Structures are given as C-alpha cells and as structure tokens.
C-alpha cells in the first residue's frame, strides 16, 4: 500500500522505530547527530554497515542492528559519538571509497588492463620498421585506442545506474534550492529593485553624459516618431574618444555595483549554510550551484537594460550582429564580476573580502586599457592586464564597436578602425580570445570559491 502511494503523486513520510519486515522498504535514509549516515537501498545499507564494522548475522533483524549502531549508548556517549561520526564520514566519502572497495570495478578493471597490455605487447613484440611493421604499429595504436574505450564505457554503463536513486534525490534537492534562492532574490528589494533602478539610472546618466544633440528636448517627440539617429555621437577625434570613454564606463558599471552587491548580500547566507549542512539537509555543492543559478537572471537583465539604453542614446554602431555581440560581452563582464564576488565572499568574511576587493579592482581597472596604454606598462606591472576582465571586456566592446560603422558617414574606412584599436593597443583578432578569457575567469572564480566555501563550512563544524 505504501509503495502504491509513493508511485502516485503523493509524498509519504513514514517513521518506523522497529520494522521486522524490512523488505517492504525500497529506499532508506538514516540520520544520526544531525548528519546523514546512509541513503540508498536496504541491501546496500547492510553492505555499507558491514564495511563500517557493524555486521548483521543472517538470523538478526537489520533494522535492530542499524538502530543499535546509530544509537547513543548510556554512560558511553563518547565512544558512541565517535562511532557515529566514523559512519557518517564513511558515507560522505563513499563515492571515492566505493570505487576501490568494489571488485567489479577495481580489481577486474586493473587485471583486464594489465592482461590486455601484455597481450598487445606480445602480439606486436619488437616490431621492425619495415612497411609491414609500420602497419602493425599503426594497428597496435588503434587497438590501444579501442581497449581504452570499450571496457571503460561498458564498465560505466554497468555500474553507474546503481547510483540513480541518489542522483535523483540530489537533482530534486538542487531544483528546490534553485527555486528557493531565485524566489529570495526577487522578494528582496535590496537586491532586485535597487539593482534594476540603479542600472536604469546609470544607463540614462551615461547616455546623457555622451549625448551629442542640439535642442534635444524640443526634438524628443520627433525622435520617437522618426529614428534614433539624432542621438548619434559625431565621429570626430573628440567624439571617438568620448565613445571609447563610454564603453570603458559601461565596463566599470557592469562590474562595481554587481561585485559589491554580491559582497554585501552573499555573506548573510553563511551561518545558515553551516547549520543546514551540518544538519545533513544538503551538500555544499547543491547550495552553491543553486545560489549561482539564482543570481544569473538578476545580474543579467539589469546589465542588458543599461547597455541598451546607452546604445540608443549615445548612438553606438547598432547593426543586429553588433547588438547581439554587445549583449554577450555585457553578460560575460557582469558574470565575471559575480563570480569574483562569490569567490571572495566564499573564501573570506565580509570585512576581509570588502577590504581586499577594493585594491584588487583598482589594479584591474588601471590595466583595463583606457586609463593607461597597456603596451607601455612596465613589465613588473604589465602582467596584471592578463588577469583583468576590464581589459578583455573593454577590448571586446571596442572591437565590436569599430568592426562596422553604420550610418551615412561616407569618409569612414576600415583603416581608421584599425588605427583607433591600435591607439589603445587592441587587435581585432583578439575578439574571441577575449570572450573565451572572460568565460574562463568566470568558471575559475566559481571553482576557487567552491573549494574555499567547502573548507570554511567543514572547518566550522
């Protein structure tokens, strides 16, 4: 009856202190001292506790054995606590140890690879470099490729499905926490409304700052009816410098508010994460991925709004491909800032992260390519530019802007575009390299942040 209910859309939570007929249960979740001691099938549970030194005789009820192993024995609490901790630690490290304890994967694979290595070696022993020998060597290399593929593939297909139930549980936990933190972001006016308003206001400010139009207020309604060409910065020497300044300012505005927003709000999760992790509610990885994914919509829409407002008001080159590429660049700049903020918040406390981030950002900003010509930087400081997403984002914005100048400017040429890029030590061929570097920065920052958060949370317990 319980299994029928589980197969329906209902959720069944059943607490059984002692269940003689343990075969009616198909999945077990054992907890002790606020930690998960085991999750999986009853048969795997018996094997797991046997590996931990708690064997169950054939005539003994496994449920009684498990309860006894996870119970606090009166007047012997210290020994019981140590035993429970050892069991929970063994389960948490089970994925690594399980592969080496499992003869179906460890011994068989090692023996199979050793035997096949000897067989291939004897088959092609001391092959001479004749025409036939060269063909034999090529055949041996191809055979090696196949032997490295087929046994590995079918071994995984045989053994990995045993983890299906645990993977399903982690998937549902992860989806729940993604929904939880996404909802938290949109319900929090300090993060949602303030960020959207800040980006809209800054977009209007930058647009008005570089707005080159006479009698703009009188012609505003005419603009709505006709076109946005009236808001186009003239391509004089001063106008070009203004456009480059606007692009660099966009890069900074996609970074600073985003980074310090993360540094202000993310550390508030730390104490809750420590408590819920040590209570066995979820893995750190589930929380980390959920929190990152929940930030993506919020720290994407606001940046797009600001960039689109500026593109319209400044009159930047706006072919469809350039607008799409500018959208991609703004997304990567903002995500680099998010990843850096998450990394700093995960590794350090709020006060330390905020005090360290400021000087680091100043160095990255100075090597961004606008405030100083990067080709003239001294060698002892010039290397910083390769760690600066300011430089990669600004260069990508500039290349995208001058790749095609639309409008009725008949005097413009590709040579002039190259001269502008060369003035800032930029190269057109670096565009996709800049895109890849910002993507790599994002992933590396997230990885470092995850490692730091794991160490902090585990040591806090």
Q: What is the element layout, followed by pairings?
A:
Blueprint (H helix, E strand, L loop, with lengths): L1 H6 L20 E5 L2 E6 L1 H10 L10 H9 L6 H16 L1 H8 L4 H18 L7 H29 L4 H24 L4 H18 L6 H10 L11 H17 L2 H10 L4 H9 L5 H31 L5 H28 L2 H17 L12 H4 L6 H14 L11 H10 L7 H30 L1
Antiparallel strand pairs: 1-2
Tell me what you see in this structure.
Keywords: Membrane, Transmembrane, Transmembrane helix, Transport. Residues 180-402 form the ABC-2 type transporter transmembrane domain. It is found in: Membrane. The chain crosses the membrane at residues 110-127, 133-160, 247-268, 288-311, 323-344, 350-372, 431-453. The protein is mainly alpha-helical and 461 residues long. The protein has 3 domains: 2-101, no CATH class; 106-161, no CATH class; 188-460, no CATH class. The protein has helices at 2-7, 42-51, 62-70, 77-92, 94-101, 106-123, 131-159, 164-187, 192-209, 216-225, 237-253, 256-265, 270-278, 284-314, 320-347, 350-366, 379-382, 389-402, 414-423, 431-460; strands spanning 28-32, 35-40. It is flat and about 95 Å long. Residues 213-231 have low confidence and may be disordered.
